[in-house]
Amino acid sequence: MIDIKTYAFDVIVAGAGPAGVAAALVSARQGMKTALIERYGCIGGGLTTMFVRPFLGGVGNPNIGTEIRQRIGEFTDFMTSLESAKCVLPIMLREAGVRVFLQTQVTGVRRKGAIIEAAMAHSRQGEIEFTAPIFIDATGDGDLAAYAGCEIAYGREKDGLVQPASIMFTIDGIDPEQKLLCHHEEDYRDLGDGREYLDLCHKACESGELPPSINIVRLYETGRQGERMVNATQFNHIRPLDPEHVFEAEYQLRQQIRQVVFFLKNNIPGFADIHVNGSSTTLGARESRRVIGDYILTGDDLIAGRKFEDAVVHNASFCIDIHNPDGAGQAETDGCPHLAQPYDIPYRSLRPLGVDNLLTAGRCISGDHRAHASYRVMNICMAMGQAAGAAASLAVKGGTGTRGVDIDELKQLTHTV
């Protein structure tokens, strides 16, 4: 029998996506002995393993995301931004003194009353027990919080469906003279031959040339001539916590890549010689668990641009981007995303109900289905990670739980004063 290894830290962060990396960096820079636990063999989450290249969303307060983007940019003279991220994020974590545990899956929690005493995880060496005064769940799926028995919301209110899953990929071989891009559902582009690109996508969906779940093929610049990142594949009715259903989604989405490529090759001038040169290594799930906290951020808050006294993310900005859970395109406002006003994210939304030493960061924070569709993007997630890391450090230094953190001090650290 392999003995259980035990590690003691000041702050434990589960999940090494953009939110988790930001949380771990800030915690460690505040002098905390910090561990970062990641189930995959690569740092970066959506930015790396899921192939999401655009840093979407805006944040009004200065945050560590700016530094992360700048450091990644320093390597892009000889790497793509995705490969640069794989290199830069470990450097930053090493510089900060974060202990990183890769290929380590959180499997459970030991809890006593309102306190998490330990997080259990499995690695190739066997079982590991992580103890700390403060834990941060940045898994995206709310794994740590779910194991702790926190209250969970899932899907949209009327039928429980979550946003569809996708696989992102890149293509090259595009004629350098073809400058076609398409960023969103209202990004109309004239193809120069009497056809409009989005109209062409809609007609291909109706005719069966594209799958019924795809009526827009988004094309983004990558910084390399003749190359585009493609955001198009869509698997509806996904159950992202069911491993067999995840495989079904993986299978279907890989087939959709072929259909999308053939559509582009056969219809778009300058795309005749394209081929796929890379794709995500894991399914891109937009939504799963949402951990209910002291405040539930709502879509109405976003549309009103609501401000909060305990704001830790200030003037977040991104549309309410609900990829249709039950069909193609957007789920609201006649197929176009509903615009939100710049809004705040309160510290209360990072504090799960009933647990005094756990914080959330990233897409699993406390919000409803509509609000989640805006704050789930990378720039906003990194700002939430910064807030969680800062709050964790204050809680440890003060010997308080997460609800004993001085809000004025926290706002100083998150630049939201």
Explain how this protein is built.
It contains 10 helices and 17 strands. The chain has 417 residues and is α/β, with parallel strands linked by helices. The termini are far apart. The chain has helices spanning 18-29, 64-73, 81-96, 143-147, 197-207, 243-267, 299-304, 369-375, 378-398, 407-414; strands at 5-8, 11-14, 34-37, 99-101, 105-112, 115-123, 126-131, 134-137, 152-154, 169-172, 218-221, 228-231, 275-279, 289-291, 311-316, 343-346, 358-360. It has 2 domains: 5-157 and 287-414, 3-Layer(bba) Sandwich (FAD/NAD(P)-binding domain), CATH 3.50.50; 169-279. The strands form 5 sheets. A 5-stranded parallel β-sheet has the order 4-3-2-8-17. Strands 1-7-6-5 form a 4-stranded mixed β-sheet. The protein has a 4-stranded antiparallel β-sheet with strand order 11-12-10-13, with no helix packed on it.
Global morphology: globular
CATH architecture descriptor text of the largest domain:
3-Layer(bba) Sandwich
* Uncertain stretches: none
Oligomeric organization of the protein chains: single chain
CATH homologous superfamily placement of the largest domain: FAD/NAD(P)-binding domain
Provide the domain count.
Answer: 2
Largest sheet: 5 strands, parallel
Count every helix, treating DSSP H or I runs of 4 or more residues as helices.
10
Q: How do you describe this structure in short?
A:
The protein has 417 residues and is of the alpha/beta class. It has 2 domains: 5-157 and 287-414, FAD/NAD(P)-binding domain; 169-279. The chain contains 10 helices and 17 strands.
